[in-house]
Every structure is written in C-alpha cells, then in structure tokens.
C-alpha cells in the first residue's frame, strides 16, 4: 500500500499490503506482488489488516530455515502476533491450547496424541475404503445429469466422509461442519461471525467428547475422550484437537481435488502422464508436483519471533510478526526451475505444500492417499472428462484461507 507524505509530493512508505491479489488471467500463480517482493528480498516487511508490519517470507530456503527455528513461535496470544483477521485476534482467548498454537514440549505432547491415526501404516490400511468411496462417488456423479459440479459430487464429500469416519462423527452432520468450518476461516468474517461459527463447532465437538467419555467407540475422538477421562488432557483440549482435525481434514483436500482436476484438464500433456501410467510412483510424484504448483495454503502461516533473528540481511526482532508464504515459496525459481510450469515428472521432494518443521501437516499421508486415488480414478472412469464452462466463469476462493474453486462444472 502506498501512502503519501502530508504534502503528498513524496512516497513515504512503500510497504506492500498483504494478502495480495492474484492475477486472474493466470489463476494458479501466486500473486505477482509476492514474486516482486522475493526478488527484492525474500524476507521483507508487509502491512496487514491492523496496520502492523510483520515480515513476509517468500523464499523457500528462508522459509525452511525459519520454520525449523525454535526462536519462532505459533503462540497466538503473544503481543504482536500477526493474526489472519480481526475475528481471529478478538477470539484468541476462546481457543484452547492445541497443536496449532503451542510450541516445544507442549506442542509435542498434543501432536503425539494426534499422529497415531495418520501414520503411513494406518493410512495404507485405509486405502481400500478410500478407493471404494471414491469409486462410488464417481459412479454416482456419472449416473447423474450433465454437467455435474465436481466440488459437491466428489471433491468435498470424499475427504468429509473419510474424516467423519475416522473421527467417529456421523456424516449426517456434514452440512453443519462444512458451512461453519468455512465461516470460521473466512477472511472477511466479522469477529461475531467468526465467534459464532467457532462456538457452534466447538460445542458440537465438546458434547461429542463428553458422550464418548461415557461410551467410547473405536475412533479418534474416543481416543481423545479416553485421555480426557484419564486426566491426561481436559475435555476442552480434546474437543479442540478433534475440531482441528475436522477442519484441517476436509476443506484442504477438497480444494486440492477440484483445483488439481482443473489444472490437469488445462494441461492435457501432463494429464496424459496420469492417464497412461499404472506406476504408483509416477502418480505419487504427480500429486507432489500438484501440491507445489497449486499452492492452496496461500494466505501465509502466522508466527512470531521470540528472539532476534538475522536472516537474508534483515533483523527480525523479538516480538515481530512473521508470515511464511508457502504458495509463493513453492514458486521460488532458486529452488524450482521454471516454477510456473506444471511438470509432473520433476523432482519435487523439497516442496512445502504440507508445511515444514515441527508443525508440518499431521494428515499429509492421508491427504496424499486421497489425492493419488482420486486423480488416478476420475480419469479411468471418465476419460473424456472436460470443464463445462468458459474459463472466466470459474470462481476462485481468493477470500478463503485455502485457495480453490467454489464450483467446477464438468461434463464427460
Ligand atoms: C491437501 C490437503 C492438505 C494440505 C494442503 C494441508 C496443509 C497443511 C499445512 C501447510 C500445515 C502446516 C501449517 C503451519 O505450519 O502453520 C498443516 C498442518 C496441519 N494439518 Fe494439514 N493439510 C492437508 C490435509 C490435512 C488432513 C487430511 C488433516 C487431518 C486429517 C490435516 C491436519 C493437520 C493438522 C492437525 C495440522 C497442524 C499440525 C501442527 O501444528 O503440528 N491436514 N497442514
């Protein structure tokens, strides 16, 4: 944002505003402004909604270095924390401690309880269920009228069914949690709307924890409830962990599925690689490249420095806000040659689409399995799948924490 001096003759402050807009002529690219900033310095200050000027990290090496640095904290209650919006700031005291807002030993304590259900072994055991659910959703879509909306037919229900089943939440609640999850992370939600959505979901989860404390079943929320019953954590913490998994576990994968299908349809030479192979490693690599290229976690992960840090010729002072921009860093040309090209065969292991360091995504093995199965299956069942609208009719979720499309009309 450019502001002028009192005499309006001289630019006094050229600190750019964040988040920045994407150029809709190239909807998969991170905002041009983040590229320009990285060229100036991958560690640069930006202005955010409350007028504060945290550091924005747009380079892959710098981002990785900071995300594993113990002088960087996710403690959102610290003065100077660069909150996502006014609602997140206003309601900070409402949110119990969890993996999302704790550091060090406290974080490991919560994280250990959550990772059990998402190990590679547990996720591999789920693959037949993921495949069966995917096949059924695709078959139902193909049996219905054309065009169909890929978001409501496949992209959103698949991860929602899976996470509901794992957590032990009846899928009949999906409208409730899908709507409130979106409201609780809407950039433009008022503090009241944010609070209302959070409180509704928190109460729902708290009641479920209480129910499962009395009568545990074989699912993740029961596991948290048993720990709460045994005094290892309290019921509010158990509810908050369940809520974190529920929110993180469906909206993200849903956006990746719909945006991924769209990107593949727009890049037929790359789509051919998926269509022509039975090699699981090729599919797995394709998913990683789509994770890099699409940058759905695009509004900056929030952190705060607890000590001074020297990086990239800058001094991040203790108490300064830090925003790490995963999407933009995954288009850093110092790390990826021609980052603007979707290249499903590139070596992409170093991407940070699932984050990096101690807070790296807990559900990434599950998300990967869902994405591998969907991208492989949809084009087997519907080899002629095509977008059923003009490119400029597609609406992108620029206002949401996770990028994606609101709807994707497809035909076959
Ligand atoms: C394509 C889908 C997904 C993407 C792109 C994604 C992305 C991410 C990213 C970037 C982070 C790091 C946040 C940070 O450092 O601030 C993260 C953390 C997390 N994700 Fe995911 N995620 C996905 C799917 C899932 C699923 C399916 C689950 C659960 C079932 C899940 C649960 C979590 C949790 C609990 C954390 C917090 C970890 C911590 O703070 O220690 N995610 N995710």
From TrEMBL:
Molecular function via GO: heme binding; iron ion binding; monooxygenase activity; oxidoreductase activity, acting on paired donors, with incorporation or reduction of molecular oxygen
Superkingdom: Bacteria
CDD domains in UniProt: CYP105-like
Protein name: Putative cytochrome P450
Lineage: Bacteria, Bacillati, Actinomycetota, Actinomycetes, Mycobacteriales
Polar residues composition bias: residue spans: 1-15
Keyword Ribonucleoprotein among record annotations: no
Cofactor: heme
Region annotation Disordered: where it falls in the sequence: 1-24
Keywords: Heme, Iron, Metal-binding, Monooxygenase, Oxidoreductase
Family: Belongs to the cytochrome P450 family.
